Amino acid sequence: MHLKKLRMIDFRNIEKAELEFDSAFNFFVLYGDNGAGKTSILEAISLLNSSKGMQKAKLSEVINYKAKGFGVLATLGSGEGLDDIEIKLTYQANKKEFFIDNEKLQRLSQLSMLGNVCWVTPASDRLFYDSKKPRRDFFDRLVYSLDKNLAKNVTTYNYLLQNRMKLLQSGKTEGIWLDKLEQEVAVLGVDILKSRMRYISKLNTILADYDLQFEYVGPVEKNFKIQIEDVEFDELVEKWFEILKFNRIKDLRINSTNFGIHKSDIKGYRSNPELLLESSSMGQHKKALIDLIIGHVKVIKSLDNSSICLLIDEITSHLDDKNKQYLFDNLEQLDVQTFLTGVRKSDFEVLKNKAVFMNIDKGFVNLD
Length: 368
Known about the structure:
By secondary structure, the protein is α/β, with parallel strands linked by helices.
């Protein structure tokens, strides 16, 4: 996704804003005080490629307090010799609608054809310090860039787990319906496992040059370690089903399905010196996050010809001058459209003459 223009109406604290992005530049720096509207602009962009966006907020929560709905309109470049594409997102009367060139989308998955949007937010600063669910969600978003069925599969998988638990709680620990439901859980679980492991394999190949590696760990990975390492998944559905069937009474007792991809975690580490990211300093953690995003973009570019838009929100805090230089040097090598936010313009001094600087002040956009 390569943005040429962006228009926002009644989106969070921005009543109206129009931005144009010079195709001669890859970097666009949005700076200003906290609460000025910088992140709101990135969030609006992220919603053009995701049903929830980078803040994971309900759309009813992002309407400007003076309005009853909002609109986001973007013009995308399609490449030399091709017509531009217009995307419109509207939200009114609790109804969300997407349009591409004035034609209403029937499926949100159609947005993925327009390219990829990747983002890093301040919440990512604690990616390997906090609980495992945010890590799973973060990496699943990365995996989604290569497998557009992943989000739907994960949602359906979790729904089936809820139904399984309801059946067990109703006293039905045997029967054809429970067997059928667990078979469906196993099929989806293996599909999700395949997507995750194939992605992490491609990512680790690239990150080997950065002395950074990631691995999924959990009950599934432990039980299927040999098959995963050999990329043999054919027999896993039946094995998965047998484990679920065997665990029915235990799961009923603890009121939770103890086996499955919903229990997985992701570990990150550097080998020189050997260091788990969960034990690293904030500065080391943020540098690993930079390497991870660089690796992710390189994975996409190696497999997909679609354009990439990178959103990086407030990443310069906790970075010393050396790591700031490292960040900007590597971003420049990626050669993708990149939006960065920060409080101080001086944090991006190294990008002088390489970026368009925009001062965001109380919801208004001012070009330097």
